[in-house]
Amino acid sequence: MKLNPDCIRDILLTVEENTSFSNLFEFDPDDIKYPKLQSYETEEILYHLRQCKYDDFFSDCKFTTTGLCVVLDLTPKAHRFLADIRTDTIWNKTKETAKSIGSFSLDVLVKIASNVVTSMINSALQGNSPS
């Protein structure tokens, strides 16, 4: 299965919205109750949950034989990535850049998003520099 960056983003946003110190995120393949995930097939969601686990985006993640997935929380790495891609403007520029170079790996997306934000910061600072 190919990595779907939009599915990754929607999973991370959903986990962030539904976890707290006392709440876990639970994905039940028989009851997809999260609005951001309802447009994806169950297999696609499970695959991308596993990819997030492999890339250390979750502090703890367990899968059962029935497909239930439980996530304790996002890691700082995932929170930084989400902070960078939260706005559609930055996310779309990140995907556009990834497409132009032909790579949608999670590592590449994280680096591109960070560079897009850095570029926007530099532009803002240059536009606001004292005369």
Broad structural category: mainly alpha
What is the number of independent domains?
Answer: 2
Stretches where pLDDT falls below 50 for ≥5 residues? none
Helix content: 55-70%
Q: Beta fraction of the residues?
A: 5-15%
Give the overall silhouette. Answer: globular
Cα radius of gyration in angstroms: 16 Å
SSE pattern, N- to C-terminal: HEHEEHHH
Helical stretch count?
5
How many distinct beta strands?
A: 3
Mean pLDDT: 94
Strand order of the largest sheet: 1-3-2
**Main beta-sheet strand count, sense and barrel state:** 3 strands, antiparallel
Distance between the termini: 53 Å
CATH architecture of the largest domain: Orthogonal Bundle
State the name of the first-level CATH class of the largest domain: Mainly Alpha
